[in-house]
Structures are given as C-alpha cells and as structure tokens.
Description:
By secondary structure, this protein is α+β, with helices and mostly antiparallel strands. It contains four helices and four strands. The strands form two sheets. A two-stranded antiparallel ribbon has the order 1-4. A two-stranded parallel sheet has the order 2-3.
Amino acid sequence: xxxxxxxxxLTIAKSTAYKLTGGVFSRKPSHLERAKREFRVGDxxxxxxxxxxxxxxxxxxxxxxxxVGSQAGGREYLLQFVEPRVCSENTxxxxxAPGMDEIDTARQGP
Length: 110
C-alpha cells in the first residue's frame, strides 16, 4: 500500500482488523509520539524491524482480531488471571481492639 503522507499511512495502519505488531519509521519525533498515542497494537516498533520480540522481556500481545492483552512471555500475562480487589476497613471505629482475636481464641480453647 502507498500513502500520500504520514496521516494517511497512520489511518491505513489503524484500519486493519489485526493488531498484533506494528511499526513506524520516521525522522520526525512528532510522528513517533503520535504513533505511540494512536497506533494501538500489541507490540509497536519505532525506527526498527518489527520482528524479534524477546520472550520474558516483552509481553507480546495484540488487539483486535489478534487477541486481547498480553500473551505468554511477560509478567503482564499473569495479570489476566487475577481480579483486582480492594477491601477497606475503618480501624478507628469505637471499640476496636487489635488484640481481641488472641483473647477470643484463648477463651475458646483448642
């Protein structure tokens, strides 16, 4: 495919259904920054070849029909198997006694 300018090239690249890997070559830093913001692919390579992801260093995952999120190879992969949760407790409430569990356990016996 040929593009008239960077805008058209980025539009073409973003229109594909598969988004595993993408690459941008440009001498203009503003083009590279724009690609970082707008070109949603699993692995984005700037001013270099688009092959050679390092297992264990790069998560190597995709978007669109290339899958969702990280694939095996990085610690981000494990985060797909957990559910983040937050549990908050007001420990300043009246009657809070941190040592109470030990007292209750001693009263109940083994």
